[in-house]
Amino acid sequence: MSEIDIKKKPIGVFDSGVGGISVLALAKKMMPNENFVYYGDDKNAPYGNRSDDEIRRLSLDCAKFLVDIDVKAFVVACNTATTTAVVDIRNKYSLPVISMEPAIKPAFNFVKDGKIIVLATEATLKQKKYLNLKEKMPDKSKLIDAPLRDLAELVEQGHYDDDVAFEYVKSNFEKYSKDVEVIVLGCTHFLFVKDAIRRAGIAVYGKELPIIDGNKGTVNQLIRVLEARDLINENGEGSVELYSSGDIDMLKKFYEIAKTIEY
Residues 109-147, buried b or exposed e (16+ Cβ, 10 A)? Predict the structure, then answer.
């Protein structure tokens, strides 16, 4: 296969469901010439409440789906899958594998005397990868880990433009210190309820707080890796194909929503 043909191969993106579509939409915006294939395992979503063994098995199945399509690289657009299974995926496949992590490092640029609240799944917050990341921070005592067990599932159920997510997040914010200055979204699903999270922050903390997510950092890393391997596709309009283990129409709906998100 020629070098040009290799560059035209698609970039694979997968998530436990619809959350990673927020990464896909941003990647397509920042890399308009590239072809993308997205696989959402929404039949098994969310991963955050599953056992580690289940998460590894399902994540490897997603990776295999994309490899069988013959992608040139893929993005694990799921913090839970990253913290639990990315090592297994990289050990199994030689393709470039770009992963997510909660954006706590850039959050320290916004914090002064208060705290950073990290919203994520239980699985993400308990894994060694995240715990090691915390150890590298300037002051880990400023981090509040807030496992939102049900929020990803609420998004999967379609609660992104009503008050259900707002009330859920608000009730969880009320459990923690009121001395919060920054909110970190440690799950790609949470981008779809960013406005509800913003409103809940105002209701509990009395002001609008910066909300940080890892999507742009992940896409920038994808670009760096592809550039280093001379795999950037610089020509053509690019395309997006969506695949689902469950409801493909839901994925299409969320993709249209994701294109309107401000990152």
Answer: ebbeebbbbbbbbebbbebeebeebeeeeeeeebbbbbb
Catalytic residue of the set 78, 97, 111, 143: 78
Could you tell me the residue ranges of all domains in the chain? 3-100+215-258, 104-213
Of the pLDDT bands very low, low, confident and very high (cuts 50, 70, 90), residue 4 is low
For 104-213, which CATH class?
alpha beta
Q: What is the band of 5 on the pLDDT scale with cuts at 50, 70, 90?
A: confident
Is position 62 annotated as part of the catalytic site? no
Catalytic residue among 45, 154, 187, 197: 187
* Topology of the domain comprising 3-100+215-258: Rossmann fold (3.40.50)
| Catalytic residue flag (residue 187) | yes
